Amino acid sequence: MKRIELPPSTRLDSRDLRLVLALATARTTAGAAELLHLTQPAVSRALLAAEGRLGVRLFERTPRGLEPTAAGAALLDGAAPLLNELHALESRVRTPEAAAEPLRLVCECYTAYHWMPSALAAMKAGLPGLDLQIALDSTRDPIAALQAGEIDVALVSEAPTPRSRRLVDKPLFADEVLFVMSARHRLAAQPTLQRADLVGETLLTSRLPTRDMGWLHKPLHAPRGPALQYQVLPLTEAVVDFARAGMGIAVLSEWIAEPHLQRGDLVARRLASGPLRRPWRLVWRQEAEANALRLWRVLSHAAPRTLKLPATRSRAA
């Protein structure tokens, strides 16, 4: 019999990896307990035990909830791929290989394409038997494409889902939308922004805000205040370049803003009232329920990590 070299033993197991993923997602031990179907004390004990075996802290408590330490972030980076590989291995052992089933997917906003393809490639092992096909032609109106049977699944943030027995709508995650401006802009020296600061400024965006964007309208609502001015630039690169040139303030997803902020000639600011969180959902045709749920479970652990901005105080503080 051929000798097999056993790999070194580990201090963690799959339950520990699921624990850190749940804590990073929920940001509280109570929320993680709900995700894992455990009690809150059991989650707290499990975290202490994992940290004890590793000899490092994995999370710190902050006013915004649990934040991963450097060690926790490193563990998070590898946890989902390892669990997906283990799941794929179990699937291969339990069932013979079958022909891959196509699943046609589209994103409502092009910003998601900045991270989704690489994320799906990394998670391919967690979706055995699925042939994911990106249907770019349906980006403009994904709900209509779903209703027409042209696609199976859509990642959406703004388009409302009509009441229909044929469509299933399930919340997924949220990204943060930032105000990005030239480092020389008059507002760049302020740690946070008020709505009044934006009056008279040109807000640069790739699409006009719609009535369904409550996450944006609510914090910027001022019935008696002057309306905010938007300029639509279809290309994301144009939005960034206009902001860099001081010709307005870009309203951008953190997914887009992060690499541009590293140059130092642009800065990102939040509202003093708090971050603008844009919720994303996965919507699918009822006929694609089984495979769409598999994709939803994988994507729920794949959202790009929230951009960390320097801690600041609002002017009201």
TrEMBL record:
Keywords: DNA-binding, Transcription, Transcription regulation. Gene3D superfamilies: Periplasmic binding protein-like II (3.40.190.10), Winged helix-like DNA-binding domain superfamily/Winged helix DNA-binding domain (1.10.10.10). Residues 12-69 form the HTH lysR-type domain. The keyword DNA damage does not apply. Belongs to the LysR transcriptional regulatory family. The keyword Transcription applies. PANTHER family: HTH-TYPE TRANSCRIPTIONAL REGULATOR, HTH-TYPE TRANSCRIPTIONAL REGULATOR METR. It comes from Piscinibacter gummiphilus. This is LysR family transcriptional regulator. The lineage of its organism: Bacteria, Pseudomonadati, Pseudomonadota, Betaproteobacteria, Burkholderiales.
